[in-house]
């Protein structure tokens, strides 16, 4: 399963990650950056460390899980 992770910094200088499952691919870096700017500008989320004050990074994480049958 793929996940889009948006990483921000809050007022205490801590990283805050927002995760979205199954992102549309290929991802659009310009749209992601604009959405992250909106989140910061609109104070859309408050964290334990205060408001989100800056965007830091974005990444797509691909996690593959394979079940093992036990005998």
From TrEMBL:
Native source organism of the sequence: Halalkalibacter kiskunsagensis
Recorded superkingdom: Bacteria
Name assigned to this protein: DUF2922 domain-containing protein
Pfam families: DUF2922
């Amino acid at each position: 399963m793929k996940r889009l992770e948006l990483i921000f910094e809050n007022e205490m200088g801590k990283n805050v990650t927002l995760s979205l499952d199954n992102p549309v691919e290929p991802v659009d870096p310009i749209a992601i950056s604009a959405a992250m700017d909106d989140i910061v500008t609109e104070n859309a989320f408050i964290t334990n460390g205060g408001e989100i004050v800056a965007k830091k990074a974005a990444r797509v994480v691909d996690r593959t899980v394979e079940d093992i049958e036990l005998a």
